[in-house]
Amino acid sequence: MDPDTIGRPLKALLIDLDDTLYQDDNMPRLVKEFIQDYMHTKLGIPQEEIPHKCYEFYSNFGTTMAGLAANNFDIDEDDWHAHVHHRLPYTKLLQRDEALRDMLASIKLPKYVFTNADRKHAHICLELLGIADLFEGVICYESVMAEARRRGLVHKGSPIMCKPNPLAVKLALEMAGADAATTAFFDDSTRNVAAGRACGLYSVLVGRTGADSGADLEVASMHDLRGAMPGLWAERPHAARAAPAAAPGIGLGPGVAAGRRELRRQSTAELIRQGADEEAEQGFGVPLPLSGERGILVPAQE
Ligand SMILES: [Mg+2]
């Protein structure tokens, strides 16, 4: 990719699913209802305690499920995903997005979905949006957790590994066979975007602009990428060029480049200390299976 937009070439894209590749207010509202219903009907948590616990778990552990696991609730993963996602009226909420498809298809870089949600949810959404075939793979709950378990990673006492833990970002990079310095990451969550930046990825907040989020770039929608990141469509230059000043109006703030250079100097161990326990640090020395053995990365189409 021509570096006109961001000052460095890109070789891969990691893209969140929910509220990033589509935006529908009903989806998160229903998921929240289903989560709270699960906590009451299946885990026996009193109704009056649930909103506070949801907030506490989401804030401290990344997802409610991760917080529940850290607090010794015995959760059947398949049952959880079936309850909080698979009951969604998908066909009423999502429809084919031809403009999104055309835009993504025209970006000649490997693209990976990177979501905390489960594989079935991701695949249903991608199929309904009409973009499932455009991704090299889907990095989802199952794929991240398979690798986290293999390495024995634990975060704040929870075995659930998910964004915004920098370890989850690093696992996703490894699964995609991508380097942080040449990967762009798109997500609607400011804290996920912050984790991406901490890992050295060019990180784009999707869904809000003017949020002073600390993201490298903010766009209201993925549909706005043509205007905001024109370099995604540029021919790869034959020689490195000097990084240009940030284009006006696309969310690049002063000090971003310097900050990113500083972040890039952070070692894996430092990133791990930011987001995980010592068990995680020990586990992160375990290499991923080599290319060609990436069974943990769920193909976009099966
Ligand atoms: Mg999201």
Automatic annotation (TrEMBL):
InterPro entries found in the cross-reference section: HAD-like_sf, HAD-SF_hydro_IA, HAD_sf, Pyr-5-nucltdase
Coiled coil: none
NCBIfam families recorded: HAD-SF-IA-v3, Pyr-5-nucltdase
Name used for this protein in its record: Pyrimidine 5-nucleotidase
Chain ranges passing through the membrane: none
Organism of origin: Elliptochloris bilobata
Gene3D superfamilies: 1.10.150.450, HAD superfamily/HAD-like
